[in-house]
Amino acid sequence: MARLIHHYLRRQAQRRPEAPAIAWNEERWTFGRLDDVTDRIARLLCDSGLQCGDRVAIAAAKGPWAIAAMIGTLKAGGVYVPIDIASPAARVERVLRSCEPTWIVADAAAVPMLESLQDSLADMAVTPRVLTLSDAPLTWSAGSADAALDAVFAGERLTQDRLTDDTAPAHILFTSGSTGVPKGVVITHRNVMAFVDWAVEYFAVRPGDRVSGHAPLHFDLSTFDIYGALAAGAELYPVPPQLNLAPQALAAFIRRNELNQWFSVPSVLNLMAKYDVVQFGDFPALKRLMWCGEVLPTPTLRYLMERLPLVEFTNLYGPTEATIASSYYTVAEMPQSDTQEIPIGTACAGERLLVLDERLQPVPPETIGDLYIGGVGLSPGYWRDPEKTAAVFLDAPDGLGRIYKTGDLARVGCDGLIYFIGRADTQIKSRGYRIELGEIEAALSTVPQLKEAAVVAIDSDDFDGKAICCAFAPVGGEAVDANHVRSALRKLLPTYMLPVRWARFETLPKNANGKIDRRALREYFAAGCERAAQRTV
Q1: Helix or strand holding residue 319 (H, E)
Q2: Residues 205-232, mean pLDDT to the nearest whole number
């Protein structure tokens, strides 16, 4: 019988039902309770007609109930789709239209946003049923099949697996798309378990360890937070979203909860260093600190290693399409200087990283090439988009399976380790999020007062690593400033995709081919020439 992701929980519930599984504010969920609740959610979904492979949108704030809904969906044979409820309703609509869920699990925080979509989603082929995790039910779902939270406990448990194939999709994670339509990355049970099994062993995560859950549920780092904790029998401490930009509060959270493991994007660590919130010998319970999603500046790493000499530091690398991470590098000693490069290291078990030229041939050591990934973590592709899938998921030139073109540039050092160089396209990483600048430009194209607009990214000394910059030219005679354009974008894009630097032009600079000169714009913003009056905080 195939191993499936939710078997991690079942095994812990059988062995240690009273052991703590999730700590949330003053709540403590045991493995036994989590197993019981997820069984009941699964039974409710099945009894209401959920078929294997049906999608369930999880529109709920991070916490034990949202996690239970995810696992309950897996037990029912469904595919969960985490929704960023902080995103504008227009973007949520695009995700829902794409994944066509038969169910939406919603909490009180999501109800107003979903209610606002009632009319725009009226023409969907199937009206989603709704499971509400609060006393604020939606009014536009399919009537008799709706369920409130008390219905979960009124029913029975589902204890038999419906799935028998570990290559079946477990969840779909939507990332930024260059055309303005988010891309759905399909991740299977086997994809997740391959990384989790390796990581739990490599990092020596043990029963009773207290591990962080910093990433939002729609971000793939959270996959290891949740299922790594379940696999090891550790206790998960989801970090409340309001702490994300509060470095003092984050440091206090690690201290107060005596966390043994911290896993986040580097921007959070940069923020802690910038505000000097980590004391010498701080976090005495912390054993390991990992980061993934973007480059951690070496000065930040040295700051942390100096103050936390007993902690193990590991750099993880990997795009969503390769499931959580594909390579790792544990830093053996403090870098000697602020300019020393930190490699992304070597491939995790079952993975391989290739640095190839334009003919898909390996490049010599110390030569920059395109970075490709193959192996057990590779996604089957993009949800219902064979064209995009075929463009970046290729047959390996050596005949050993498929490889994914990451869009990143890298080189193999003389030490045999792989070093990340940067992006080869218009995609960037900021605060750990992968952002297609084309999606921002697609949103700008809907602002009627603009004649033209372009978005570029430049290196930033701030904690986010990259500054997104917008240059725009209004239609003649329009009194349009950066605040007006930003307000328009807020209705279409999540906060992390909004530009932070702005410049108004009469006409954007052009190159010899008559195209917008993006290089000139990058130089303009990098030189600090944008008008101070157009900056936003």
Answers
A1: none
A2: 97
Q: Rounded to whole angstroms, what are the CA distances from 93 to 96, 114, 191, 347, 486? A: 5, 9, 27, 37, 20
Banded model confidence at residue 22, pLDDT cuts 50, 70, 90: very high
**Taking residues 504-527, what's their average pLDDT?**
82
Parallel, antiparallel, or unpaired for β 261-264 and 418-423?
A: unpaired
CA distances from 506 to 60, 111, 477, 484 (A): 43, 42, 10, 16
**Contact (CB, 8 A) for 172 and 185:** yes
Task: Spell out the alpha helix ranges (H) of 445-530.
Answer: 482-490, 518-526
Instruction: Dig out the tokens for 350 from the structure.
Output: 């079952």
- The domains found in the chain, sorted by start residue, are 7-164 (3.40.50.980), 239-423 (3.40.50.12780), 430-534 (3.30.300.30)
d(CA 473, CA 41): 52
Cα separation, 379 vs 501, in Å, equals 35
Q: Are strands 20-24 and 351-356 parallel, antiparallel or unpaired?
A: unpaired
Residues 6+ apart with CB under 8 A from 309: 281
Q: Name the strands in the sheet holding 346-347, side by side, starting at the edge strand that comes first in the sequence.
A: 27-30, 20-24, 235-238, 210-213, 261-264, 288-291, 312-317, 327-330, 346-347
Rounded Cα–Cα distance for residues 148 and 10 (Å): 25
Residues 5 and 170 sit within 8 Å (Cβ to Cβ)? yes
Alpha helices in 327-436 (DSSP H): 386-392
The answer for residues whose C-beta is within 8 angstroms of residue 109's C-beta and 6 or more apart is 60, 61, 85
- DSSP collapsed to 3 states, 36-67: HHHHHHHHHHHHCCCCCCCEEEEECCCCHHHH
Q: Structure pTM?
A: 0.85
Residues 417, 343 contacting (CB under 8 angstroms): yes
DSSP single-letter state for residue 406: E
